[in-house]
Amino acid sequence: MKIAILPGDGIGPEVTRQAVKVLRAVASRFGLALELSEALIGGCAYEAHGHPLPPGTLALAREANAILFGAEGGFQYETLPRGLRPGDALLTLRRELDLFANFRPIVAWPELADASTLKPEVIEGVDLTILRELTSDLYFGEPRGIETLRDGSRRGINTMSYTEAEIRRIAHAGFRAARSRRGKLCSVDKANVLETMELWREVVTEVGTEYPDVKLSHLYIDAAAMALVRTPKAFDVIVTANLFGDILSDEASMLVGSIGMLPSASLNADSKGLFEPVHGCAPDIAGRDIANPLAAILSVAMMLRLSFGREDAASAVEAAVRKILAEGHRTQDIAASDEVVIGTEEMGDRVTRALA
Ligand code: IPM
Ligand code: MG
């Protein structure tokens, strides 16, 4: 298992360290041969090499069978020119490796019911997956930019764009995911207003005829945003466009209680993947040993399952997390006011020990 480790910035390195610890433990328990190599990405790469995605990092990511990514960004980089900002490295990686299928599972852990701002009866039993298209849409559409008009005022432009082929492949991924779960796929668009999304709905519906066993429904993004907090248990798999998926997945994190619990997988057509916690770099809490490493650890489980087909090892990691949560161990983001809080490192150590 050739894995590129890209810890990045902010809390990325500290949560990735815990995830690697868990990865080594699960590898030794299941006899898996690991070949890990680490490289800089994001702000730290910019500081060291003048670019957030140095050629060596991109080459390493290309050669690996899977990538474990931490986070990137930081306040100090936000005014850099576009192309040199840390976030651009991640976007380039997604695009270059054609990681179009981004799975963000949303599972309400009964142990964490108190951590959510929503009523327990609303979130109890929530188990859904957001499948976000990751390599097209407004994120990459041309033309884009900020132009100066004749009167000297400025205009910003981005382009929402999807080709039929791009919609078709993410739709197939959605139907296959639904088939392996509870057989329900909800496609989220804005077909009532946007032509791009009209095409989206048409193509998803057409692909759906190949999956008669999957129950397909459609929602507009505004209605979906409401339904997600009103009746989240009604969802199984949600397939949606890049920008809508970005927004819905942050909203959905509140069903779980903390974005610090959400892993993700971004796969290409050969199931090569980049695995990352959804939470981002969180510079305000970086380096203080308080970040929750469970999203990164659960990303390792997704890697074992989706890129390496090791359901046994993946389940073992998830079971270890469940055991630690059931025993009452909490980082600050998931702790109730009367619970004892442990740090990033200790959480990682406990999951590692539970695996052995
Ligand atoms: C995400 C993030 C990224 C995105 C940023 C960091 C570019 O918000 O993965 O959800 O917008 O895709
Ligand atoms: Mg986001």
Describe the structure.
By secondary structure, the chain is an alpha/beta fold. It has two domains: 1-103 and 262-356, Isopropylmalate Dehydrogenase; 117-256, Isopropylmalate Dehydrogenase, CATH 3.40.718. It is built from twelve helices and twelve strands. The chain has helices at residues 12-30, 43-49, 55-63, 86-96, 120-123, 164-179, 195-208, 221-230, 242-256, 294-306, 311-326, 344-355; strands at 2-8, 35-38, 66-71, 101-107, 127-133, 145-148, 154-157, 184-189, 215-220, 237-240, 263-267, 273-277. Strands 2-1-3-12-11-4-5-10-8-9 form a ten-stranded mixed β-sheet, with helices on both faces. The protein has a two-stranded antiparallel sheet with strand order 6-7. Helix 1 crosses helix 10 (294-306) and helix 1 runs parallel beside helix 12. The longest helix is centred in the first third of the chain and has 19 residues, at 12-30. The chain is globular and about 60 Å long. It starts with a strand and ends with a helix. It binds 3-isopropylmalic acid and magnesium ion. Residues 87, 90-91, 246, 280 line the site of 3-isopropylmalic acid. The site of 3-isopropylmalic acid (IPM) has 5 residues, from helix 4.
Question: Can I get a quick summary?
Answer:
The chain is of the alpha/beta class.
Question: What are the SSEs and their pairings?
Answer:
Elements: E1 2-8, H1 12-30, E2 35-38, H2 43-49, H3 55-63, E3 66-71, H4 86-96, E4 101-107, H5 120-123, E5 127-133, E6 145-148, E7 154-157, H6 164-179, E8 184-189, H7 195-208, E9 215-220, H8 221-230, E10 237-240, H9 242-256, E11 263-267, E12 273-277, H10 294-306, H11 311-326, H12 344-355
Parallel strand pairs: 1-2, 1-3, 3-12, 5-10, 8-9, 8-10
Antiparallel strand pairs: 4-5, 4-11, 6-7, 11-12
Bound molecules: 3-isopropylmalic acid (IPM) and magnesium ion.
The site of 3-isopropylmalic acid has 5 residues, from helix 4.
